[in-house]
Write a structure and sequence with these properties.
This protein has one domain. The protein is elongated and about 60 Å long. The protein has about 70 residues and is mostly helical. The N and C termini lie far apart (about 35 Å).
């Protein structure tokens, strides 16, 4: 599960970089916007998939919330 999360984060960063590339690249305005929109839509989909995977990992007991320990007063 840990490797799936790492791969998903890398893919999210990569798709964000692709959207930035298409945004800054010159050329046909319509195609540039279409490529940028596709890259951003892919990033949103990956983010949702990662969130669902984290919820499923918690549900099946692969990860456990630990919380923030309180310091003694």
């Amino acid at each position: 599960m840990k490797y799936l999360v790492i791969v998903a984060f890398i893919a999210i960063i990569g798709s964000l970089g692709a959207a930035l590339f298409f945004m800054l690249k010159g050329g046909d305005e319509g195609k540039r916007k279409s490529n940028m929109a596709n890259a951003l839509a892919f990033r949103v989909g990956l983010s949702l998939l990662l969130f669902v995977c984290i919820l499923l990992a918690w549900k099946f007991g692969y990860i456990h919330p630990t919380g923030v320990p309180l310091s003694p007063k």
